[in-house]
Amino acid sequence: MKIDQFPKEIRPYVVPEPTGKMLYRCLGCSAQMSIDRLLYTCPRCGSVLMLYDEHFDRITELGGDKWRTIFDYRRMLNLQPLKGIFRYYEFIAPVIPLDQIVYLGEGHTPLVEANDRLKEMIGLDFYFKNDGLNPSASFKDRGMACALSYINHFAKREKIGNLLAICASTGDTSASAALYGSYLEDFVSSAVLLPHGKVTPQQLSQPLGSGAKVLEIPGVFDDCMKVVENLAENYHVALLNSKNSWRILGQESFSYEIAQDFDYEVGNKAVVLPIGNAGNITAVMNGFLKFYKAGVIHELPKIVGVQSEHADPVYRYYLEGDEDKRVFKALTVKPSVAQAAMIGNPVSMPRVIELVREYNRLSGGKRVFVVHVSEQEIMDAMIVANRNGNIACTQGGESMAGLRRAVQAGHVHQSEVGVLDSTAHMLKFISFQEMYFQDSFDPEFKVKPKQELRNAPVLIKPRSLKKFPQPGKPLEGEEMRLFIQETVAEIEKILGLEKK
Question: What pTM was computed for the model?
Answer without folding.
Answer: 0.94
